[in-house]
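Lest this sound abstract, we think one record worth quoting, the chain in one-letter code, the fold tokenised, each line plainly labelled:

>
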Amino acid sequence: MTLSLLTALLPIALLIVLGAWLKRSQFLADNFWAQAERLAYYVLLPSLFFHGLATAKLDGMHFQSMVSVLIVSTVVVSLMLVSARALITTNDAAFTSIFQGGIRFNNYVGVSIAAGLFGVQGIALAAVANAAIVPTVNILCVLVFAKYGAGGRMPLSKVLKQLALNPLLLSCLAGGLIQVTGLGLPIGVEPVLKALGQASLPLGLLCVGAALEFGSMRQWLRPVGYSSLVKFLVMPLVTLGACHLFGLGGKAAIAALLFQALPTASSSYIMARQLGGDAPLMAGIIACQTLLAGVALPIVILAVTQWV
């Protein structure tokens, strides 16, 4: 398991390093990065989520229980974070980054590890996890940005507008509708969406590396610590409790625990940049959690799976 984890995490770390080098070497013009972030947020990430949900193979006897475990654990931990907001930080924008670091997950790492551990069945379990968590975390993050983003608290009408127009939520909804109705994607469209979605992962990680401000590393320590504590300890424990509550066991429970203990996603940075969060801090959390996951993830998974 440890080898599968490290194999999945290594390319992510290398892409972040490459992004940092490209920015500091001025190989690309500074205005490239803002346009790359916009492309990722409005085109590439929506393609990734839409394609993933529309084409996921969700058949399986554990589907309902696994979805319930993942949604309930995500919502519970989100409520815990919001309740502890005053104890975590006095900076609203920083809180949005800590929040995303605590509840979002890296799809690429999850699918790679699940496939390595369980083969074809692992890919199916990963599809269920994505179908449950992706829409849930995007709704929760939009709500948190609406309250704590740099623009200040939004009135209800603007919150609803943010939800209605958010490209990540719209793509999740559209992909879910395709999945539920069984319509499938038109010939020629599916490979285009797949290619665009795959492009979101390396581009997003390059943007994360470019946004790293190493002079601020000391200021990251506490926020990284909070978000990583939630991600690698609180979230797995809450998920373990949800597994017992809903009677989920075996490989499905291990997959649920795996996805809830993954380092946060590169899409967190894109969302922070677009919705008024602390984007440099978010980049730091992504980079640090990716490195920490090489040690923390095997320990967490081996420990908690003893109880499923």
Q: What stands out?
A: The chain has one domain: 2-307. The chain has a mean pLDDT of 86. Residues 2-307 form a domain with the Na+/H+ antiporter like fold fold (CATH 1.20.1530.20).
